[in-house]
Structure formats: structure tokens, C-alpha cells
Amino acid sequence: MKVLIADQINKKGIDELKDIADVVVQTDITPEELISSIADYDAIVVRSRTKVTRDVIKASKKLKIIARAGVGVDNVDVDAATEKGIMVVNAPQSTSITVAEHTMGIMLSLVRNISIADKSVKAGKWEKSKFMGSELAGKTLGVIGMGRIGSQVVKRCKAFDMEILVNDPYITEEVASKLGAKIVDRDTLFSDADIITIHVPLTAETKHSIGSKEFALMKDTACIVNCARGGIINEQDLYEALSGNVIGGAGLDVFENEPPKDNPLLTLDNMVATPHIGASTKEAQRDAAIIVAKEIKEVLTGGSARNVLNMPVIDPETMILIKPYFELMTKLGKFLIQAAKGNIKEIDVTYCGKLADFPKLDILTRMILQEILNPILNEPVNLVNAMAVAENRGITVIEGKRCEFEGYDSLIRVEMKSDSNDMVIDGVISKEPKIVLINGYKVDVETEGHLLISTYKDIPGVIGVIGTRLGEHEINIAKMQVGRKEPGGEAVMVLKVDSNVPDSVLDDLKKLEHIYDAVVVNL
Ligand code: NAD
Q1: What angle, 0 to 180 degrees and rounded to 10, lies between the N-to-C axes of helices 114-122 and 96-111?
Q2: From ligand 1's centre to the CA of 497, what distance in Å?
Q3: Per the CATH hierarchy, to which homologous superfamily does domain 319-522 belong?
Q4: How confident is the model over 133-147, as pLDDT tens digits?
Q5: Does ligand 1 come within 6 angstroms of the Cβ of 279?
Q6: What one-character DSSP code corresponds to residue 151?
Q7: pLDDT in tens, 258-290
Q8: What is the CATH superfamily name and number for domain 95-273?
Q9: Residue 157 C-alpha to ligand 1 middle, in angstroms?
Q10: Is 276 designated active site?
Q11: Is the pTM here over 0.85, yes or no?
Q12: How many Å lie between the centroid of ligand 1 and the Cα of residue 5?
């Protein structure tokens, strides 16, 4: 294994990797050098200097994981990595405490006038009465977004004896009350809080989500802090609210355009600014290096990473629930790609019974796509790129659930539609993975070995003729299953045979009278 450290990271991260890989530290690598050498590497670690572009990813040959020792991945072409099946990981946990502490610093600076008082003292003044402050204790904090960082801010503000209001549509009352916070609607938060702190991601929903309407709701003494991302607050509206004393103050670590040039906010005394240093501590950098090194170690030794940005992450409890189905999905995928015909147009996967309630079922869908697509494509398909590859090839993937279900505890139905036929199979786990339905015919097929599946007219003698023909080619039948909807109609026969059925024998069988079709599946 070979790992490239392309940007400066903490030594502890490098040491962590040394027991499993040959680690090359080349922190001055140029874009051209990176493209010409990336083919040798299994993993690359970057911070923000090195750009992992589409061209770099294209030039890679065995790269499995791109690790960003930090949070943002603007310097990594995640789409290109996904298409090539390369995992992209980061270290979002590394900065939570660091950013929360910075937020506390900005809050204290605002309520105690620390940054302007500092300027004043250094200018030779002693304006004690001008800088009358207020305490945090007893005040109300409004937290917008209570994820990793927001929760750490809440914990610290509880220690400052503050009341905590939270607005986060994606967390429960229970989670909030565990931290001593109360969930409220946005308007209540803006009107009741003395300090508002923002910890949401920048998304289409949150972009410019705080502007003059929100400032008008706030107390004229209240302050707002943004240590999340520039662009969440409308800066023009903020300038008007601060200069018109609609609100008391603001603290910004982030700006819509960084560095902020000719930004009128920078002329205001009731605005505290820092240059996007919320995550900049030695501890956060050390932790980021260790976290990504551990992720790489896991992935290169066959384990799974926690912070994958281009694949669903499975927590240990979910893993226990869905792992037994991994083999079944693999077998169903292998079965379908060998048994079906034509260009695949659509793959519908329906999770039935108890399984329908399990989380992260898309990992199972990715698993079946991987098995179906791998044999027909040149590019390797894996759990990272399975959905993207299907989409790029115009294959519609539909995932469904059916909770009301009889017959089995849990069942997975996969329907593969192509331009020449549709095929539906049902799979269950009954001690071992089994196929219990093929195109509507009930069967009970073990998913291993060589299977010959024939459709034929359900009349006396046909089964015997197939058996005889196989015998002539010294192919021994180990097990036989037949399924039919009605006597005399079309039926399906699944023979488990001890050796592979060569194409020539299969062609022979297909020519027999009353045989509609025959396929061989090797599982
Ligand atoms: P997180 O994903 O752990 O938490 C985000 C929270 O926001 C989640 O609980 C989510 O439910 C909530 N949320 C999403 N949309 C929302 C909405 N419309 N209204 C209310 N809540 C909403 O993220 P995190 O790691 O805590 O990071 C929070 C922010 O801090 C991000 O914007 C991140 O980019 C930023 N950040 C800044 C720095 C810095 O240097 N200043 C460093 C790291 C992270």
C-alpha cells in the first residue's frame, strides 16, 4: 500500500499510517507532478493547498480513498471521485470544539466590547464608561442548527447559566432537552434571544435565510454570531440593521466573499470580525490528521470508513441489522445479470416485511447494482459509484418498501426491466440466502453452484427429455425444482447441476420441442 501526504498534516497522522503503508510526504507537489505520480497511490491526504481535480482522479489507477484532513472539500472533485468509485472522506468532528470555543470568544468579545476596548487602550485612551458590558449569565441564547458544533456551543453556554432556545427542524425534542435546550420556531428564537448563533450548513435553504425580516424581530440589544458559513446572513441587510441600531451587534468569522473587500460591515464598531479562523487550532489540525489517517487505515485494510462523503455511512447498530442481507443481495444481482437479457433500463428493488423498517437500505440497493453492473462494464463498480454509474448509463433505479407482507418475515423483490424482457425474482434468508420466486413462479432455490433455468410447456415428458440430454453430456443433476401457475401452461424448472452447462449444450436444449427458453446461472 502507498499513501501520499500532499499537504502538511500533523505528524501523529503520518505515524498512524506507517504501520500499514509506505507513506510518501511530498507537501510541495505540483499539479503536474501529482497527475504523473498518482497512479502509484492507494490513498492521498490533502488539506486545502492540493487540488484533487478530475484530471488527477482520471490519472489514478488504484486510488481507493481521498482524505481531506479538515472539513470542507472544495478542493476535491467529489463527483469525479464518485464516478470512479473512489471514497472521499473528511474529518468533520475535528473542529467541533474548536469552532464552539471560537464562537464563545466572539460572544464574549461582543457583550464585553473586548475587541473595540483593545483598540481604544492601544490608541492611548482609557474609556471605562464607554465600554459598559453585559453578562451572559441569565441571558437567552438562540441556536440555529444544533449539530456537532451547535451542541458544543449549547454545552458551553449552559455552563455560563444561559437559557437555550434552538431551531433545528432535523432534531427531536428529546435530543434538545438532553442538552437542556428548548426547541422553538424561528420567529420565537429571533424575538426572544439575546444572542443568536448560527451553526447550519450553507444550503439552498439556508442561503440568505437571515435578513431584514429576522433583524426586525430581534431585540435592539441582541447580537448575532456567524461562525458557520458566509452567505447565510444577507450582509447588506446586516449592515443596515447594525448601522441603524435595529440590533445590538454582530460577530462574523465568515463572509460571503473571503477575504471581504470594501465590505461596509468592516467599518462598524458594533461588528467583531475574525478571518475564518473558527477551525484554526493546533488541536483541530492534529485531530483531523489522526481521524483521516484512521479512516485510511480502516479502508485499506478492508474495513469501512465513518466520514464518507460520497456513500451512506452505516453505524454499528444498523450494520448488525442489514449485514445478513449482503450475501443475498450479491447472489440476487449475480443471478439477474446472468439470467436476464437485453439492455437494462430499470431496476426496482422492493424491501418487504420487517426489513422495510430497517435504515440505510440504499446500501443493499448499491450492493445489487454493483453485482449487476460489474460484469458488463469496463470501469469498476463499487458501493461508492454504483448509483452514479447506473444514472450515467440511463438506468432508472427505484427503491420501494412494503411493510404489509405475508409468507416471510422479510423478503427482497428485484425487478429488472430491459428492452427485451422483464425479470422478477424474490429472495429471502431462510438459514441461507434463497430465491423463492422467479417471474411469478414459486420455487425454492439455493443460491449457490450451477443452475439451469428453463421455461417449458407443462406437459408430460419434457422434464425427462431435458434430463436425458444433460445425461448425454455427462452433466449430473443434483436437485430439481419446478414451478407452474396452472397445469398444462408455462412452467419453470430450476436444475442444480454438478458442473457448468456449456453454451453448446444450452443451445441444444433450447432447440428441444416445448422448451421456450433456457439460461445458465453460476452462483
Ligand atoms: P452538522 O451537520 O453537524 O450540523 C448542522 C445542523 O444544522 C444539523 O443539526 C442540521 O439538522 C441543522 N440544519 C440544517 N438545515 C437547517 C435549517 N434550515 N434550519 C435549522 N437547522 C438546520 O454541522 P457542523 O459540523 O455543526 O457545522 C455547522 C456549520 O459550521 C457548517 O456551516 C460548517 O460549514 C461550519 N463550520 C465552520 C468552520 C469555521 O471555520 N468557521 C469550521 C467548521 C465548520
Answers
A1: 60
A2: 57
A3: D-3-phosphoglycerate dehydrogenase; domain 3 (3.30.1330.90)
A4: 999 999 999 999 998
A5: yes
A6: H
A7: 999 999 999 999 999 999 999 999 999 999 999
A8: NAD(P)-binding Rossmann-like Domain (3.40.50.720)
A9: 17
A10: yes
A11: no
A12: 28
